[in-house]
Write a structure and sequence with these properties.
It is a single chain. The protein is an alpha+beta fold and about 1300 residues long. The strands form 7 sheets. Strands 4-5-10-7-6 form a 5-stranded mixed beta sheet, sandwiched between helices. The protein has a 4-stranded mixed beta sheet with strand order 11-12-17-14. A hairpin with a 2-residue loop joins β8 and β9. The termini are far apart. This is Cytochrome P450 monooxygenase. It is found in: Membrane.
Length: about 1300
């Protein structure tokens, strides 16, 4: 499809979408509004998109913030806007649910007419998620509803319902008997009991003898309704339910499990299980009685059962609870009802039956609450991002490059030079070439044309990405030397399945992996692989021998597939040793995988398409999984004791295990490196060998020279095995290989990305461009290699590479510099072995059928071309999914909030669209971290430079911008106190969704969920419980101190230790029991009763305590299994992080302040002597407590706390609008000279000698663990663990700062020592 046609099609689609959006959001609503007003109907004016939703929500929040009494009207609490409209506009009016007008009618005649005309006034379409709960009859319309109603009606005839009365009695009497077991009077929350009662009734009445499965359905539907309620609080985005989010996956799993249970019940009935008195039996019976195919299908029966289960249970439990509440308030009616029951049933032991129940005439009315569901559809997508990516940024970069005099092609929106390059490639490949022709027009036609017309440096466009082509050796050298500034480009997602590992890593991760893998490719290690090279190569050569002998003395062979198999076989042996057969299977799988990826690269690239379950995607994932299983099996064998360390896998595992301090590679990383070595090693060597044979076939003189050299070194015995020394002496062979690699490099170009402005020679490169080094062009450049650059002349390398290149960086078949290919020696040695054996046995020449047609497969150019050539598809996807959610979020709302804050005189920074102050913050943080500081310096300019700058500029209250969200910083203790006390008005802010993967649970919950979890978890952190954990503290701490003892004794009596990783390990070990137990308890909580009882006995670890606390709650009020697990994860992360940070800064401060170290040691000796510290003694360490308090003041675990404001709130004299955040800067407040005195920045533990209240003068100016109701629940745990660790350390060591210690506190999530904490330990 030509570009103009695509562009027109795109514009038509975009215009159609925009017209529909405008019509839906504005034209249709305004037309309907005029229609209604012309009839004299009153209503609210239409607000685009949101209608009255915002107003209604605000009124609801306001109404629900005020308590009401039983005698108050509940309508203002449930339908505040409707009531207001009713009072001001009368009995009929309209308001707006988003862009849809909703006519409210209260006239009984009108209501009667609406309900009578069921085909004209249909039920509205439910939210898609609600249909999971309330489908069936309740959601059907028209003829389908009529048919289902007709079939279902008999199931609810009085005669059928009579049969269910015994079930009603049985379930109700069970609950009543449990209540009777209580004392004569007691308080009971009847709601959960009534919910369980109605669920039990439905389980029996609906499913009879299958009621246990019914109870399971109740549990599942309860969980499902909870998840759906969560989803309804989020903006509704059409299609979002199909995304594989955690909630969506869980909802689908629940729905599937419910279906499976119901389907199982239906199958039993269809197989003859006789039971017709329950709902399921009645429905099946009613259905089967219908003839002519008009009955219910199994799926429809299932839907009706689910509806009955949810609606029946929900309606009856709500009716019962409000009946009991109202009869509790109106005792006279309670007495009348009781008197009637006694009259009709006579004795309390009589079972009520259908007849007696029908005589109960005293009625109780029920008001069903109406819940208004607000559906917010996001209409405005991320258009600015698209325009910026497609037009603004490329044009800005083009202008920047042209101002420096850099030549290049003009930018074509979206496609850049891709179409032009593809056309030139197609044209070049349509023409045959000879062996003496230049191959670059066939590989890099556009680059060659630009090189000839514009010189050695120019730019072209790969889609909207500006690509600088450099061929100047000095520039190339600079790019390859600065590996951290010119990083590898991100791989195409699918290619990562093949080429991951070292080849794709950047920065510190690359450096670590390179350091670990380097030993695996030392010459000494490669020597051990030479026998494997010989074995595999001789096998192929022997097969060629048979082929030739079968045909006489000559035959034609396509050597390419043979060489591919040979190199794969070498890799299989060299990489996996005795497991080479599994390695061969990996080769087969990777071959299939590369073919599938090549197919996918020819298709339009749409982000996220790789996650769709297409045939190719499923096969690729299956292959990747099988390769992983094979590799993991090999690794397990080695870890299990299988001794083989000369192969690559063994060397990698050995190199990895030699790394200490957690710096080795994980099993997954080892596997990735094996996959990379397998693909890259096999591909590179097979390509080198095939071009060597082709060129030696063309240049018989060099073939003879090479053969002669092999005979001289190895002799005439063709069975002689070449060894490492003989192969290293093949000088002519080396020259030939170097020349082949020059003319036919494995990859035609190398690429790097520029992520910040960089100087390259005299050129300044802006961030966002890419740098390409066209290897094929550089290797054939006459200015660098002479006029014979295109000819095959191995003699140019007779004095080595340096002489051939004149010491310029113009030869880079394996890259250059620090990132040069780690396996080049391996590849060359393997190639020498193969060629030596081939030359010993054969001479060879080009067959008449040979066609010279070099092309790129699975390398950079094809990937880039495939991605960019279908950029139109990318844009359609981006426009569909990544265009801005709303302009209001990015511009209007921030500007409105900014104006609101400025009117109150609050100073702050002007709003920068989208980014806010993030750029300034990052810039200042980067600059601050680039400088070291002294221990006596204030750390706030380094840890929180931007807030510190704002404090100095604007004072104690100001606002900044976190993206488009204004953040109010407050430092007034009274205002801080107010924020901490109002936990429901100032909830935790969830700015970073990804943090939830690390620490969710209590720390992230708000409102009633937080209150419930806090109540359940509190007992787990009572002092008595924590005392039971002291032996675990001692064990973990003494392990580390014992290792330090050994380290110090090995070095004499003193040695330097970086204590930071040790303390991290120590505190993690203290909690590791919890994490290990969690896996087992997860199974326990899911239903294995006997193990649950065991768990309840083992309550000294946190998990046991949580279970004990949870199981002690009233039924229905405990935590789910997932909740318990989340609390364990939070405890593990937060507990370890907080305590390790506190310990490291305590040791650093005591190293500087030896007097306080001595006082602390003296106190420990007085309390414990040489004994094991216990809980009672730890609580007596007053000096230690003062020290820990002071360290927490100067180095709090986190630098600030954030709270959200969801509605307009007063804080002191400030009025804060909904939508802002509040920042409570712990670090700034705890070092504030106005609150702590002029010595606020100094280490003075004595300020806490009379306790926290005296030190803070009863102000809220000290909150390292937060403050108020949400104060950290684990603070006593952290302090006790820290005291144990410090007591053991002080008993055994004195310590001081090492000369290599660099003071560099910085924030990760907590305040860490950036370069570790190097201390000198002295054995006491």
């Amino acid at each position: 499809m030509s570009l103009p046609v695509v562009a027109v099609a795109l514009m038509v689609v975009l215009a159609a979408v925009l017209i529909r959006v405008v019509n839906w959001v504005w034209i249709t609503p305004k037309k309907l509004e005029r229609y209604l007003r012309r009839q004299g109907l009153h209503g609210t004016p239409y607000t685009p998109l949101v209608g009255d939703i915002k107003r209604n929500v605000k009124m609801l929040m306001e109404a629900r913030s005020e308590p009401i009494t039983l005698t108050d009207d509940i309508i203002p609490y449930l339908l505040p806007l409707a009531l207001k409209m009713f009072n001001s506009h009368g009995r009929t009016f309209f308001m707006w649910t988003g862009p849809i007008p909703t006519i409210m009618i209260t006239n009984p005649e009108h209501i009667k007419e609406v309900f009578s005309k069921t085909f004209d006034f249909e039920a509205t379409v439910s939210s898609p998620l609600v249909k999971l709960l309330v489908g069936g009859l309740a959601s059907y319309k028209g003829d389908k509803w009529a048919r289902h109603r007709r079939i279902t009606n008999p199931a609810f005839n009085l005669e059928k319902i009579k049969n269910m009365v015994p079930v009603f009695y049985h379930c109700s009497s069970e609950v009543v008997s449990q209540w009777e077991r209580q004392e004569s009077s007691c308080e009971v929350d009847v709601w959960p009991w009534l919910v369980n009662l109605t669920a039990d009734v439905i389980s029996h009445a609906a499913f009879g003898s299958s009621y246990r499965e019914g109870q399971r359905i109740f549990e599942l539907q309860g969980e499902l309704s909870g998840i759906i309620a969560q989803e309804h609080k989020k903006p509704y985005i059409p299609g979002m339910r199909f995304y594989p989010t955690k909630n969506n996956k869980r909802m689908k799993a629940i729905d599937k499990e419910i279906d499976t249970i119901l389907r199982g019940m239906v199958s039993k009935r269809e197989d003859g299980e006789a039971e017709h008195n329950d709902l399921l039996g009645i429905l099946l019976e009613s259905s089967s009685e219908e003839s002519g195919g008009n009955g219910l299908s199994v799926e429809e029966v299932l839907r009706e059962c689910k509806l009955c289960y949810f609606a029946g249970q929900e309606t009856t439990s709500v009716l019962l609870v409000w009946t009991m509440v109202l009869l509790s308030h109106h005792q006279d009616w309670q007495e009348r009802a009781r008197e009637e029951v006694r009259l009709i049933l006579d004795d309390k032991n009589n079972k009520p039956d259908i007849e007696s129940l029908s005589h109960l005439k005293v009625e109780v009315d029920m008001s069903l609450p109406v819940v208004a569901a607000a559906l917010m559809v996001v209409l405005a997508f991320f258009l600015i991002r698209v325009v910026n990516w497609v037009w603004l940024t490329p044009k800005k970069l083009e202008s920047y490059l042209r101002r420096q005099g850099l030549p290049g092609t003009p930018y074509t929106p979206l496609v850049g030079d891709v179409k032009r390059n593809v056309n030139m490639l197609m044209e070049a490949r349509s023409k045959p070439i000879t062996l003496t022709d230049d191959i670059t027009p066939r590989l890099l036609p556009l680059a060659l044309k630009m090189f000839n017309s514009h010189g050695r440096t120019f730019f072209i466009w790969l889609g909207p990405v500006s690509t600088i082509m450099i061929t100047n050796p000095e520039h190339i050298k600079e790019v390859f030397s600065k590996v951290y500034d010119f990083e590898m480009n991100a791989s195409f997602p699918l290619v990562r399945l093949l080429v991951g590992g070292l080849a794709s890593y950047k920065g510190d991760k690359w450096a670590r992996h390179r350091r670990i893998i380097n030993p695996a490719f030392h010459l000494e290690k490669i020597k051990n692989m030479v026998p494997a090279f010989y074995h595999c190569c001789s096998e192929v050569v022997a097969k060629w021998d048979h082929l030739v002998l079968d045909k006489g003395l000559s035959c034609e062979v396509d050597v390419w597939p043979w060489l591919v198999i040979m190199t794969a076989d070498v890799i299989s042996h060299a990489a996996f040793g005795s497991s080479y057969r599994e390695g061969q299977r990996i080769f087969e799988l990777q071959g299939e995988l590369s073919s599938l990826i090549a197919q996918e690269l020819k298709k339009p690239y749409i982000p996220g398409l790789s996650f769709f379950p297409t045939k190719n995607n499923k096969r690729m994932k299956a292959i990747d999984k099988e390769i992983d299983i094979i590799l993991r099996g090999m690794v397990s064998k080695r870890e299990g004791g299988e001794a083989e360390s000369n192969d690559l896998l063994g060397i990698l595992l050995a190199s990895s295990s030699e790394e200490s301090g957690g710096s080795g590679m994980s099993v997954e990383e080892v596997m990735r490196e094996c996959k990379l070595f397998y693909f890259a090693g096999q591909e590179t060597t097979s390509v080198l060998l095939v071009w060597t044979m082709i060129l030696l076939s063309h240049h018989q003189d060099w073939q003879e020279r090479a053969r002669e050299e092999v005979r001289q070194i190895l002799g005439d015995n063709i069975d002689a095995k070449p060894d490492i020394d003989s192969l290293s002496n093949l000088k002519v062979m080396s020259m030939i290989f170097y020349e082949v690699l020059r003319l036919y490099p494995p990859v035609s170009q190398l690429r790097r990305s520029v992520n910040k402005e960089m100087k390259l020679g005299e050129i300044t490169l802006p961030a966002g461009v890419r740098v390409y080094i066209p290897t094929a062009l550089v290797h054939r450049d006459p200015e660098l290699w002479g006029e014979d650059a295109g000819e095959f002349k191995p003699e140019r390398f007779k004095d080595g590479i340096s002489k051939a290149t004149k010491n310029q960086v113009c030869y880079l078949p394996f890259g250059w510099g620090l990132r040069i290919c780690i396996g080049q020696s391996f590849s060359l040695l393997e190639a020498k072995m193969a060629m030596a054996l081939i030359l010993q046995r054969f001479s060879f020449e080009l067959s008449p059928s040979y066609v010279h047609s070099p092309q790129i497969v699975m390398t950079t150019q094809q990937m880039e071309t495939s991605v960019a050539s279908v950029a139109v598809s990318i844009v359609i996807a981006v426009v569909s999914w990544w265009v801005w959610r709303t302009l209001k979020w990015v511009w209007f709302k921030p500007k409105m909030l900014e104006s609101y804050l400025r009117r109150q005189g609050i100073p702050g920074t002007p709003y920068t669209p989208l980014v806010g102050d993030l750029k300034k913050m990052t810039s200042m943080l980067t600059e601050a971290r680039s400088k070291t500081i002294k221990l006596t310096d204030d750390i706030t300019p380094r840890v929180v430079p931007y807030p510190f700058h704002m404090l100095k500029t604007h004072g104690r209250t100001y606002y900044t911008w976190f993206g488009p969200i204004p953040t109010i910083t407050i430092m007034d203790p009274e205002q801080i106190k107010e924020v901490f006390n109002k936990v429901y008005d100032f909830p935790k802010s969830h700015t970073f969704p990804l943090v939830r993967f690390i620490a969710t649970g209590l720390a992230s919950y708000n409102g009633d969920k937080w209150a419930k979890h806090r109540r359940i978890i509190n007992p787990a952190f009572h002092l008595q419980k924590i005392k039971n954990m002291v032996p675990a503290f001692h064990q973990s701490c003494s392990d580390v101190v014992g290792k330090w003892d050994k380290l110090v004794l090995d070095k004499g009596l003193s040695c330097e230790v970086d204590v930071w990783p040790w303390l991290v390990s120590m505190t993690a070990d203290g909690n590791r029991r919890v994490k290990a137990a969690a896996r087992e308890i997860l199974i326990i909580l899911r239903g294995i009763v006997n193990k649950r009882l065991l768990a309840r006995e083992a309550s000294d670890d946190l998990l046991g305590i949580l279970l004990e606390s949870n199981l002690g709650q009233d039924e229905g009020n405990g935590m789910s299994t997932e909740d318990v697990m989340e609390e364990c994860k939070l405890f593990f992360f937060a507990g370890q992080e907080t305590t390790s940070v506190l310990l490291v800064w305590t040791m650093v401060m005591l190293s500087q302040h030896q007097d306080w170290q001595a006082r602390a040691r003296e106190e420990v000796k007085q309390v414990f002597g040489d004994k094991k510290p216990d809980a009672e003694g730890l609580n007596q360490l007053k000096v230690m407590t003062m020290i820990l308090y002071e360290v927490l003041r100067l180095y709090p675990p986190v630098a600030q706390l954030i709270r959200a404001v969801h509605k307009e709130m007063k804080v002191g004299d400030l009025t804060l609008p909904g939508g802002v955040q509040i920042s409570l800067p712990i670090l700034l407040v705890q070092r504030d000279t106005e609150l702590w005195g002029q010595d606020a920045g100094e280490f003075k533990p004595e300020r806490f000698k009379d306790g926290l209240s005296k030190a803070t003068k009863n102000q809220v100016s000290y909150f390292p663990f937060s403050w108020g109701p949400r104060i950290c629940i684990g603070q006593s745990f952290a302090l006790l663990e820290a005291k144990m660790a410090m007591a053991l350390i002080l008993q055994r060591f004195s310590f001081e700062l090492s000369p290599s210690y660099v003071h560099a506190p910085y924030t990760v999530m907590t305040i860490h020592p950036q370069f570790g904490a190097h201390l000198t330990l002295h054995k006491l």
